[in-house]
Amino acid sequence: MEALEETEEVEQTPEDVISLNISDLETDVAVEEASVKSDESDFDWSSIDTSHLPSSYKTNSQQEKELLQLADHFFQQYSHLCPDRKPLFIHPLNECGVQKFVSTTVRPTLLPYPDMYYWSGCASFVCDYLIMERLKCPITPPSSLYSPTTILKYQRGNCFDFTVLLCSLLIGAGYDAYCVHGYATLEMCSLDQTQELCPRLRKPPEVPEEEDPNKYRIKYPLEPQSQFELRQKAKKEEETESTQEEENEEQVVVEVDKPKRDPLHGLRVHAWVLVLSGKRKVPETFFINPFTGNHHSTTDECFLGIESIWNHRNYWVNMQDCQRGCKDLSFDLSDSFCWEVMLAESNEPSQLPTESPKKDTDDMEKEEIGMSFEMPLSWVAQIKVSCREYENPFSRGKKEILYDKAKQEKWAAYANRDGLVERLTVYADSDRTEELEVKEWFKHREDLLYMREVNKQTQLITDHFRPGHPLLLKAHSYTSLEPETGHTVEFYHTARVDGLWKRFENATEMTEYFEGREDFLHMRHIEFGKRDQEREKAAVTADANPRPIVQIKEYFHRNPEKPADEDIEERIFMVIDDVIQLTYHLELHDTIASKVVFCRVIGREKREDEIFLSRENTVKYQPWSSEKHKNMRHLYDLLWELRAEQKDLKQQVRDSEAEMLNILMVREDEEANIKLSVSIYSTAKREQQHE
Fold first, then answer.
1. Interhelix angle for 227-242 vs 244-254, to 10°?
2. pTM for the full model?
3. DSSP-assigned states of every residue in 144-204
4. What residues does the Dynein regulatory complex subunit 7 MORN domain cover (predicted)?
5. Residue span of the structural domain in which 597 resides
């Protein structure tokens, strides 16, 4: 009996459980409201000056009053037929305290800037120009909706303000865009991207290889498999299954770092933009998060439901089930079973049934008005963005975004003297303490540098240049601008006469890569010896004390116009040892290549203009050559040509060394005296320079 009495005391009724859940929910909401007030204490919307605003902001026209009556009637019907659903966001107050229908707050505008003609440019401008403010209550829509002009003036707003401004720009650019009132996750509502991968680090999706459509191709049999190996593999799988429990216990410890479950999950109000396919050749319907400017699929799990959508012409209420988020939603707005439209299109009345089968005279009059009513023009003044505001979108000087193990920083053009506009720092840990890599992007630099990568582990710096550099540079990798410290330079080879596209040089070697040459040369490798120590101690310059050339190797592609045993594949000049070695290409079915080696005669002094040829200093293996290529006269002519080419090659190597020194001097001067170019279309910057 005592045990029964204790259980009766512990048990709670369902009403008590519900009241406890509601009280917990209220405490969570109260905590968030307090945090929002503390975060936004630096700006007071109630103190803004509205005296200069046009009369359309302060009063309603007769057509707007009729629209508000229709909206009230629509809202009453909706509340009666759907009592379990949240109230509609349909006619909030504007900055002057006047009720305005949400569709009339959308002002389609096309700004006179090339990037603003595309959705990506509009989205990036809105998310960069405005400062995000969280909703005062996370589970209810705001009581007011300010005009896009006021939002642009003060450069801040909540998700609804972001959405209306972005939708106005997208509709003006010709997109079929709509404002969405719905529900989203905590991370999306609070602009928390610390658990997401930075877009700059995302790899492009791999394109699957197309299968051969030829049905007559040969189908090769599958490779035979050992039954013993299959049994061993099955045993290993059983062992792994037995150890899964231990691994799960370890995973529980790892999951502690993951964010806790949101108590308001599914209740957090959010607003975003819906872009339907069709107009502007949009292939597929997608969402745009106005806080980040990123596009999302309509099946994204971050979007948990939709209450209503609207544009500058109409208002639709979602009548579909959102238990699985937005995955199963149909966005065919002409389907009256999925979407309830407020202003009936094509003279069709609203599909919402009335309270009773007998319609009152007032309802009949309102319905007749709804059948022929047209949306009034927007009460918002023309949206204008000056050149200065467009080119300097960051109100706080820069924008900082934190991602998973990464930090992204953005600046306006000309904000930094070196032209820096963006920096991405990649970290080794989630706390962002140990730097792995830093990427920087530049604009308007006269040296045409547009990106720099710095590996913090190896201190390797890689500069990337746009086409048009005086030295035809494409990329330059280095750890120091001092000569012979390890430099890799890439060129725009189509603009060079020699077809050089890459060169690597350090203290002991130099390697050059070519492309598109008539002589089919594709690589040259040079080995250097040590300098004269006495001259180096005497502080003689590098030009006066060059590095001795030990060996030069050249590699050639196959020339189809020549026989294989006459087409050189590899050519080696051992300068100090006075040895020349030639290796020829192979025919299709050959296995051993033809070779010719010219050696120095032992005991004979070397003279520059003298060529001494004998069977002692010539080693040849040409099994496929004709008889004329095996006689001494042909070898003598070949050696004469090689001596002349060796002399030219040595001069080319010295020219390459001089070119590398010139590149380093120019780059050092460019970094010491950075200059930014001003476009003729940048009126704001030119006015600033003129002042």
1. 50
2. 0.78
3. B---HHHHHHHTEE-HHHHHHHHHHHHHHTT--EEEEEEEE-HHHHTT--TTS--GGGPPP
4. 396-679
5. 480-673
